[in-house]
Design goal:
binds aspartic acid, binds magnesium ion, binds adenosine-5'-diphosphate, globular, alpha/beta
């Protein structure tokens, strides 16, 4: 009997009808002789809504809270009505939803009074999205007469460090707890339904594992329960040559290695959380990306050594939005040992991750890409620390309207002329490249363009390298 962890993203649980379809899918596999554990994201859009309302509450704007919680209740109520037929189960789930939303209202009011939103309280607020969706999926599965039990990530045993917003699971402890709490049920054929994305630190305080983190929850569970495969159900057929929202002709990649898929996830293929492949790749557990709306398609299979891997040098292209470029100049940086370290140290100490770096041999400047939301913090801290009199830095400039384009493929390594082909393709469109970087792994070439040109660049590269054809 196959053991599978199935994760359903927000796009798969957007409405009550979708949730009913998800329950049908899960129970069909279980009845066909498979053991399933289910991981659920918040209903589509809810996590973003929670972040917005928390930010408004921080500004002591209380009037939004009541409207928001009413609308949230209504949205979930409608989902319950469409997903679950049994009136008894409907009532049971409605009660959970009402209690959960009433708790949320108190949390938001608290934030409003203190006028402060810390990473810790933000994690608490966003956790409500999954806390509201999972009971509905649980109710819909129960409605199909299958044995099931609902857990939050914390109840399931996912323990992380206290890096709120981007917490890291303590994998050994977590595996032990999950096996202890979910293992016996799972072995008996009961379907555990677990909230994705949310966990708790060692003190039991709610944490989240980063945006899109339900994928991560799924692979953590997969490793702990030693399943045969982890299935990530989403709204596209699998991992594609590029975002099908930019290039509708994008083609599904049937097989990828862990390394290639991780590279794509890090560089913007939203279909997968960047850190999710860590736990499964160590244990060689295959991951499949599948389409909830097209379950006949077997999707993209991610393994250590794909059997039928394509050898095209360029396999995929992605655009990473919401980034900004920071350029640090200073003639005094030339030949001064440790000058880069000072720049990175300031950013690191202020919790700013540098996503991409480029410098010239002249060493008079260094360009970095960071998340756009962190730009203000980055400039102010660099200015405070580095640009006083006598410092190595003479000028800091920024561009907040850029995007990174990442061109990926394992066979790019050692293939001559790929970079020149990419850059001439961009130049032919009259688009200016602002910065370039290539990792020593040669798995990808990344460069920066103005965000308004990003989609055109992705389309041009997709077309030029004929990525729509295998
Ligand atoms: P979910 O709610 O299922 O987690 P996400 O929105 O996180 O879904 O990820 C799925 C989306 O990722 C797709 O709708 C697609 O637009 C986007 N995407 C971006 N790049 C890729 C890619 N290379 N392959 C597949 N999907 C991609
Ligand atoms: N709901 C969370 C988010 O929107 C986690 C997830 O969807 O995987 O980021
Ligand atoms: Mg996702």
């Amino acid at each position: 009997m196959k053991k599978i962890v199935m994760k359903f993203g927000g796009t798969s649980v957007g409405t009550g009808d979708n949730i009913r379809h998800v329950a049908d899918l899960v129970t069909k596999y279980v009845k066909d002789d498979c053991k399933a554990a289910v991981v659920v994201s918040a209903l589509a859009g809810v996590t973003n809504n929670l972040i917005e309302v928390a930010c408004q509450a921080k500004k002591s704007d209380a009037k939004h809270i009541e409207t928001f919680t009413k609308e949230l209740q209504q949205k979930h109520q409608e989902a319950i009505a469409a997903a679950i037929k049994s009136k008894t189960i409907q009532k049971e789930v409605t009660k959970i939803t009402e209690e959960t939303i009433s708790e949320l209202e108190k949390v938001l009011t608290g934030i409003c009074y203190v006028g402060e939103l810390t990473p810790k309280s933000k994690d608490y607020v966003v956790s409500f999205g999954e806390r509201l969706s999972a009971p509905i999926v649980w109710g819909a599965i129960k409605d199909q007469k299958c044995e099931t039990q609902c857990f939050t990530g914390k109840e399931a045993g996912i323990v992380t460090d206290s890096n709120f917003g981007e917490a890291n699971p303590l994998m050994n402890f977590t595996s032990h707890l999950i096996r202890e709490r979910l293992g016996p049920l799972f072995d008996k054929g009961v379907i555990p339904v677990v909230t994705g994305f949310i966990a708790a630190n060692q003190d039991g305080i709610v944490t989240t594992v980063g945006r899109g983190g339900s994928d991560y929850t799924a692979t953590i569970l997969g490793v702990a329960l030693q399943v045969d495969e982890v299935w990530i159900w989403t709204d596209v057929d699998g991992i594609m040559t590029t975002d099908p929202k930019i290039v509708p002709a994008a083609r599904m990649l049937p097989q990828l290695s862990y390394q290639e898929a991780a590279e794509m996830a890090i560089f913007g293929a939203k279909a997968m959380h960047p850190r999710a492949l860590g736990p499964v790749s160590k244990e060689n557990i295959p991951v499949r990306i599948r389409n909830t709306a097209n379950p006949k398609n077997t999707g993209t299979l991610i393994t250590k050594e794909p059997t039928s891997n394509e050898t095209k040098p360029v396999k995929a292209v992605a655009m990473i939005r919401d980034v900004a470029m920071v350029n640090v100049y200073g003639a005094a940086m030339v030949g001064a040992p440790g000058s880069y370290a000072k720049v990175f140290d300031v950013l690191g100490k202020n919790g700013i991750n540098v996503m991409m770096v480029s410098t010239a041999v002249s060493e008079a400047n260094i360009s970095m890409i960071i998340k756009r939301g962190l730009l203000g913090r980055a400039i102010s801290n660099l200015e405070i620390a580095l640009s006083e009199k006598g410092s190595i830095v003479s000028e800091i400039t920024t561009e907040d309207d850029v995007a990174v384009i990442a061109v990926m493929g394992a066979s790019m390594k050692g293939t001559l002329g790929v970079a020149s082909h990419i850059f001439s393709t961009v130049a032919k469109r009259g688009i200016n490249i602002r910065m370039i970087a290539q990792g020593s792994s040669e798995l990808n070439i990344s460069f920066v363009v103005k965000e308004k040109d990003g989609a055109a660049v992705v389309k041009a590269i997709h077309e030029e390298f004929k990525l729509d054809k295998s």
